[in-house]
Amino acid sequence: MKVRRLRKTPAHLEITAFINLIVVLVPFLLSTAVFTRLAVIDLALPAQSSDAIAKLDPDKPLKLEIVIRPGSLEVGDRHGGNLLPIGERIPDVASGPDTRALAVLIQAIKTRFPQHDDATVLAEPNTSYEKLVKVMDAVRGGHQAQGSKSVQVDYFPNISIGDAPIVQTAAARP
User: How far is the CA of 61 from the CAs of 40, 56, 114, 115, 167, in angstroms?
Assistant: First the structure.
């Protein structure tokens, strides 16, 4: 008996529709992709200080500290104390910290200590991120007039951040 076999031709894959989809989908996905640029600020944590280190010593180099308090900024030297007149602070303005007054003071400090590049910004726990960044930007650098040009100048580019020391109020003392 003869066996009948059906001759089957191999099926062709029809991928034209898939290729059309890819041709349309790839440019669409690339055009709608969000490419982000991350800005990274190099920071270093401040060294641990003890009461012996914090004592006033005129022979020690400048250890600039900017303390962010609610409503004001304190600028001082870890070894020499407050760099503003006694009891004075830089008060905040309506838009936040007074970065102009801070920049003028930082510029004056930099002219007295041109070899120093380190500063520490100490913030209280409830300090907003925007306020911290504004203060860091004012300490890091600014614009200085040279002739008829305004030139970008680095003041204290090596910034460390940390927690501000707690201030006891008269009501909180026993």
Answer: 29, 11, 12, 10, 25
A 10 A CB-CB count for 95 gives 8
Tell me, yes or no, if the pTM score tops 0.70.
Answer: no
Contact 161, 149 (CB under 8 A): no
- Tell me, letter by letter, the H, E, C secondary structure of the chain: CCCCCCCCCCCCCCCHHHHHHHHHHHHHHHHHCCCCCCCCCCCECCCCCCHHHHCCCCCCCCCEEEEEECCEEEEEECCCEECCCCCCCEECECCECCHHHHHHHHHHHHHHCCCCCEEEEEECCCCCHHHHHHHHHHHHEEEEEECCEEEEEECCCEEEEEECCCCCCCCCCC
What Rg value do the Cα atoms of the chain yield, rounded?
31
pLDDT per position as a tens digit, 101-151: 888 888 888 888 888 889 999 999 899 999 999 999 999 988 777 788 888
Domains annotated on the chain, with CATH: 51-163 (3.30.420)
Distance CA 120, CA 97 (A): 17
Provide the CA 10 distance to its chain's centre, in angstroms.
65
| Residue 155, amino acid | Y
Contact 102, 141 (CB under 8 A): no
Q: What confidence category does residue 86 fall into, taking pLDDT thresholds of 50, 70 and 90?
A: low
